[in-house]
Amino acid sequence: MITLPDPDCRYGYTVEQLEAILGDRLDAFGRWIDGQTISLCTGSEFDNQAKGNKPTGCGPHGSVVYGSDLRRFLAGRRSLD
């Protein structure tokens, strides 16, 4: 089993990390993850009390993939519908 680095984003693995981890398997992962939920790191989150966004100190990273999905792919398991 592959040992994964810690994600660069609090929500999951960034595109740059996926490129480094997956290499030539990146296209296959793209097909596997198609239709699955991913996260979007904008560098902020909504603060209900302030009625506005506040910085999170993370990102913005753009689209990030949950670690559980990356581990499922690397283990050869199917994606969850």
Automatic annotation (TrEMBL):
Domain of life of the native organism: Bacteria
Protein name per UniProt: Uncharacterized protein
